[in-house]
Design brief:
185 residues, globular, alpha+beta, 8 strands, 5 helices
Amino acid sequence: MKEILRDKSRDELARNLNSLGIRADLAERGRPEEKIENSWYQRSLGIIDISEGLVRWINILKKDASRNSPPLWWVILCIPDERPLTNHKAVDIKTIRKKTFPLFGRVVDVTWKGNDHHTGLAEVLSNDEAVKNLAKKIGNLTIHSYAKEFQGWTLQVDRRFEPTNQDWATIQKIADYILSSARMF
């Protein structure tokens, strides 16, 4: 009975990635990576290990439904970085989606805002059409740098999604931008 009621979002994303030719394996539960980006009101559904590419693992977080709100999901794509990062100057940027009409309109443009500590990352991402199209399609994106929990970066999507080959190529492109950013720490 427990298996029937279990949220299968992690399984579905792994199955989708494998169907695209991206080797994605479900990891054992309880790994420390499940705590990355995990707030008190969320719970991790588990880790998906990716064997190739710049994104090495994915964590799916869920906030269960309450009486007044539906369930929410976040997909956290993790990009390890061996270069030294300082925590007091953490990069924190996110997409701002401009719509034809506030709240209900169609997304017409995407820009990146936040503190990128002079890396130029927000500008590069704002000027890339493939990145804009990805954010228009799958939702809001957020990038954080980490030095304590793990050494690297996260790319957070604010909902579940089923990536296509083009989406995955764009995610890898964003990861490449992140890792090649000229940081001035």
